[in-house]
Fold this sequence. Notes:
Helix content of chain A: 55-70%
Order of helices and strands of chain A: HHEEEEHHEEHHHHHHH
Largest interface: A-B, 46 and 41 residues
Strand content of chain A: 5-15%
Shape of chain A: globular
CATH class of chain A: Mainly Alpha
Number of helices of chain A: 11
CATH topology of chain A: ABC transporter involved in vitamin B12 uptake, BtuC
Structural class of chain A: mainly alpha
Oligomer: heterodimer
Strand order of the largest sheet of chain A: 1-4
Number of helices of chain B: 14
Distance between the termini of chain A: 52 Å
Number of domains of chain A: 1
CATH architecture of the largest domain in chain B: Orthogonal Bundle
Radius of gyration of chain B: 22 Å
Largest sheet of chain B: 2 strands, antiparallel
CATH class of the largest domain in chain B: Mainly Alpha
Number of domains of chain B: 2
Helix content of chain B: over 70%
Amino acid sequence: MSLWQSLLDAWQILVNAWPTLTANSFALGGLLFLLSAGFSLIFGLMRIPNLMHGSFFMLGAYLGVSLLDTGLVIGGTLFPNGLSLFGLTILEHAITIPRITLVPRVPEIFAAALISGVIVAVIGGVIERFLLRRLEGQVLPQVLLTLGFAFIIADICLMIWTGDPWQPATPSYLGGAVQVLGIFFPFYRLVILAVAVAIAIALWIMVDWTRLGAMIRAGVDDPPIARVVGIKVSRLFTLIFCLGAALAAFAGVMGAPYLAVYPGLDFDMLPLALIVVILGGTGSLLGALVGSFLIGFLYNFGQAMFPNLAYFILFLPMVLVLVLRPQGLFGRVVA
Amino acid sequence: MSRWVRYGAAAVALLLLVTLPSWIGNPYYINIASQVLLFAVFALALNILVGYAGLVSLGHAGLLAVAGYTAALLLQAGYGHFLADSGAIVVTLAASAIFAVLALRATGIGFLMITLALGQIIWGIAYRWASLTNGDNGVNVATRPAPFGISLSNAPSFYFFTLVVFLLALASMAMFVRSPFGASLAGTRDQARRMNALGYNVWLIRFLAMMVSGFWTGVAGLLFIYYNQFISPQVAALTTSAEVLLMVIAGGTATLFGPIAGAAIVVIMKNVVSAYIERWNLVLGIIFVLIISFMPEGLVPGSARLARWAWQGLRARFNGADAARPVEERGP
Lengths: 335, 332
């Protein structure tokens, strides 16, 4: 096939599929933001790239999809069929929670995402508190420890959920397409985007406007001085680590109907988060946001238009940023 | 005295390595020995960066795959072994230069992140660019080369070939470490700013270290495809980078023999584990966590430390007991 022909094909795909591609790009960008915001904050505060972050995404997705599959409904009855995970019966009977029925219909997928986020946050917190903490100040061993756990989590997921990909159906009330300016967009993709934007705003308010955020910023800027003025930096580490893990798991569940869950999802997402942070600059929420959507668009359009070269296309902005602005688009030079 | 002990040990080790096929016999085990040697070359290459330059790369599987794929594709296109292999080395050096130029924009953890991202991009290209790399199905390498007319098709002959390459790599590494360049590289690892102030071009030294490492990684990649006669995207996966990094840190970084011991440990363990269960990744992760938690300096120095500690503890207790006895009952 000639170069001209493949360019023509790419143009055809662009013209025909751009609404879907745009919606997918926004959705992937939103998911990447949820993933890389935590990654970036952990990096900013602890100075280590958490190589388990993709694993948190995948583990969260598996947990959430399992919860959905067991028939989790929040409207009054939790676990109507009891709960059994990994073949173990955990709950025999349903749990009734009357107060939540006040909310007419919380989509199960959000409930599943929240619960799975909490579970993964606890797992992350345990690893941080009991293993990473012992290696404080030794950057390389900490990174390699997270890499070791990435392999462990990947293999445990393979053991429990087998190698078959698992794609839950898009929740019916979030399915379908919406018409904007005469063009149809898949609705669920926009839901992901809306959730990501809401969380981005919440994170921004937290980091920029609250006391906790001021403490986090102080910890990012200068951990020793922050300690001197009485900020419990190690407690902040744990908090941020748990928050990052929870966001990654939440994103995994929200993304499951779109990306599916499969072995290897962890190491598909981790480099994307790395590239987002390299592009946006470490420790910067705005950088994570811009980088996420940039990569979301490049990845989706690249993959549809030039399927062979999708990874080359990711490589290009990284080269440009590293050569022209190595601290990232919104990163600051740390003395 | 100690120097003669060392020479003697080296001579015995060499003798053992050369005679290994004759006392092992079974081709399966000879093949494992070949694997150990080829991964030792790979680990020695990475150790230049991790041990002597203080730059931890998690993208070296990508460079290995670049060498392997280039040679395999050139061979498939009908070129001879010499041309395919030299082409592969040239392309690997070019890829190493790109890696170096980008990753050396940062040091420390930034270097690790960038090499990891670059390695994953190479994995993605190997996996997705199916019209070039044949995707998941991989590329077959029909024949092994026959240097000077010696066929390498059976296990012992390939073992000897790998041994020769391994000894060359080891000798070059020993020379490299003792050379002024090796010393200046260790200087950039320990005191980059002072080296800079002394007039050394820190960036250039690191760049050259990356190229040397890339060269031997390319050689290891060629050994790899000739050993397996096959290459697939699996080679470029993060697991391979992590395995070779584990070899380096398990054996002890910045030592000449650490990576070799690490390669032997990891390859043998991988073969033993894979024979019983399918959970190699789990075992790999657990070894990582255990080594880093308990023996961060590597298995060889770590075991030495634990043994010394235990010995001192015993001696202290013995001496303590001795001192408590009346003078006339004490031992000599």
